[in-house]
Amino acid sequence: MNFKTLKHDVPEPGILLVTLNRPEVLNAINSTMMAELLTFWQQIESEASTRCVVLTGAGKAFCAGADLKERNGLTVETWREHHEILERAMEAMIDCPVPVIAAVNGAAFGGGLELVLGSDFAYAAADATFAMPEAKLGFIPGAMGTQTLPRACGARRAKEICLTGDAFTAAEAFAWGVVNRVCEPEGLLHEVLAVARKIAANAPLAVLEMKRAIAATDETDLKSGYRVELEAYNRLIPTEDRKEGICAFNEKRAPRFQGR
Prior knowledge:
The chain is α/β, with parallel strands linked by helices. The chain has 2 domains: about 5-200, 2-enoyl-CoA Hydratase, Chain A, domain 1, CATH 3.90.226; about 205-250, Lyase 2-enoyl-coa Hydratase, Chain  A, domain 2. About 45% of the residues lie in helices and about 15% in strands. The chain has 11 helices and 10 strands. The strands form 2 sheets. A 6-stranded mixed beta sheet has the order 1-2-3-5-7-10, sandwiched between helices. It starts with 5 loop residues before the first strand and ends in a 9-residue tail after the last helix.
């Protein structure tokens, strides 16, 4: 995967670190980044060795949102063409079969906050800031923000955030359920990689099935969701990883999961 606006490397086996890489514009999302995010999320499914993705930003920001300089003067048709790519990228992100953790190292505004909300969970630096400022610009969130934000913090809080467009702190993001943990800035990536390491050590098929089953809670009632859980449970019973996990437990050793 060769990109202009994204960097990626493997800091540890099974962990893919992806960095939004336009620090000169606070990692604002332009049309190139939209297309590259789509390509990345589509290709990650074929990366069998990847067991966890960590998403962060280069420089002092996570992502300032859409690149409004690029959008200035666009025709309605071109705007919609660009945005259709972003829509597909966000859908591919939430369909990513492996866990995605956002390491929010700085400002996450607009589309940047929507990337945080599109991850499975997020840790933030103590000096990170967040906002959904679209109402101040004449439009609304368009990368699932009106759907993912209420799921994180509740409808009433989401309305306050979106309708005012005001920024909020990492401490508020934690209190409201937008992020899972607040870290000292210099220790953020260390803490995120530590939790990614725990995930990468677990049975990858079990992690995938749990991610799918938990996602079903947004769409189903309790008993229907339970059926989704049981279907996933039964898919795992005949797997080699399930056998290996039980065997390793009884032999008092670390399991060697292969994703089979």
